[in-house]
Amino acid sequence: MTLQVRILPVTPLRQNCAILISDKAEAVIVDPGGDTQKILNELQGLDVRAILITHGHLDHAGGAADLRQALTVKQKKNVPVWGPAKEDAFLLTTIESQGAAYGIPGLKNVVPDRYLEDGETLSLLGHTIEVARVPGHTPGHVVYIDHEDKRAIVGDTLFRGTVGRTDFAYGNTKQLLQSIRQKLLSLPDETLILSGHGLPTTVGEEKRNNRFFFANLTF
Q1: pTM above 0.85, yes or no
Q2: Phi and psi, residue 181, nearest 5°
């Protein structure tokens, strides 16, 4: 069973919130960065099983607390927030100040129901989703890999033709590139890459054309 995916850009930063949907009308939300009502409007008739976060930046996690609360009330059962890795806890507790710095009101700090670890698997929507930690953009950044559908939701690690920013005090370019090579570019070439911003791409496309990799650059 292939999962349907809807991409919903949220916040002024146009972050790609992903909604995965099974043929049983069950759903998982990845990176609800904000615009909670906009996301809820897309969830009519769906039973949301979990909210996943790739990393602790405001545009990826800023709507998770409100969405969890709204869905728990609506569905009359707890809808858990999972991820990222615990190394991003310091970012999740500063989302409101991040929002103030960017002039984006209404975002909330969030404490996940649990943090995730590199290599663990999640059983969701009839699929097994692998969690891979890909640090460098943030220390606790994780990606979600669905081997059955040959699809990876990668947050701000790998983009079409480029990679995530590392010019933060906690960023690490060498670590990011090594992690992408090991965890993402090792996937089959046809694997669809859903990035946190912009258009999708594939592993093969990035191996051939991403300047950080096809030229074998080192940092």
Answers
A1: yes
A2: -60, -45
The edge-to-edge listing of strands for the beta sheet with 121-124 is: 121-124, 127-133, 142-146, 151-155, 192-195, 201-202
Burial code (b: 16+ CB inside 10 Å, e: under 16) for 23-44 equals eeebbbbbbbbbbbeebbeebe
15 pairs with which residues across the strands?
A: 10
pLDDT at 219 exceeding the cut of 60: no
State the burial class of residue 219 (Cβ atoms within 10 Å of its Cβ: 0-12, 13-18, 19+): exposed
Contact between residue 183 and residue 143 where contact means Cβ atoms under 8 Å apart: yes
Pairing of strands 26-30, 47-52: parallel
* Percent of the chain residues past pLDDT 70, beyond the cut: 97
pLDDT given at position 1: 82
> Could you tell me the two tokens for 212?
């950080």
Buried b (16+ CB within 10 A) or exposed e, 117-145: eeeeebebbebebbbbbbbbbbbbbbbbb
Number of CB atoms found within 10 A of residue 116's CB:
22
Please state, in angstroms and rounded to a whole number, the distance separating the CA atoms of residues 193 and 133.
16
**Lookup result for tokens 């919903």:** 8
Phi, psi of 179 (to 5 degrees): -65, -40
Q: Give yes or no for a contact between 25 and 45, defined as CB atoms under 8 angstroms apart.
A: yes
Q: How far apart are CA 211 and CA 216, in angstroms?
A: 8
